[in-house]
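Q: Convert this sequence to structure tokens.
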Amino acid sequence: WNGKAYQALRQSIATDIDAVPICVGCPNRIDEPAPPADYMTGVAKPEVLFIESYAGCNLACPGCNREAIEGSRESLTMGMDTYKRVIDSLSPTLKYMEFHLGGENYMHKEAHEMVRYCRDKNPGCFILSSTNGHFFHTDERCQKVLDSDIDALIFSVDGATQASYEKYRVNGRFDRVVDAMKRIVQLRNEQGRKKPMMIWRYILFEWNDSPEEMDLARRLAKEIGVDHLAWHLNGVETMNSSKRYHVGSPHLIEIKDEIWDTLPQRISEGPDLDFRRYR
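A:
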């Protein structure tokens, strides 16, 4: 973290972030200018980690610039040896890890082993991942989720029917994702486990925000047994945002207890995580 390579990277970002290939099109870019290049010199190693084991994706969501993401990586897959070196360098004081970034991490053949490795090296770390849910179609794969001891798993499912879901999750199969959530919840409950916390994140667009569709999603969430259903406001400018639910809308009061930004307050167990800070 305090070595020459990282210091050089910070210097490049502070000088001209758009000249750094890995930063171009990064979904975590913020508007604020970069801090001085030497601001982390001599500081203890990070306690929060965002890691991408796989940069590719099986879907073609219009709000995701696959060309920029995949084109800025020398390889779509992170090797296990590289991953272990990263985790080892931050252990045993890592407190929070998001196991996803620009791709679908569960396309990596060793995804579950990676999560488990972090857990073994950092017993107190809260591990979270987000997925489109297409890679848990067997009981064996769902069991691996439980055995990895991940704390929370977010399923991105933007619709309550195939017709509305596939408008944004292009090439996605709604039935397969719902079945995956059901399988994981069922296995978790049968084995008397509390983890992973299952979260259904639903981005609101103009085609999936009707009272009927949202009520259907609520009923499905209850039937599946997810721990939380969270409406997410569309942050992609080129897409068709919900006309009722958007930043500044007076209608937000209608769903104030179900919106993504209130999720930290709704989680009664575990660490007090502010997802808005991390994502």
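The longest strand covers residues 197-204.
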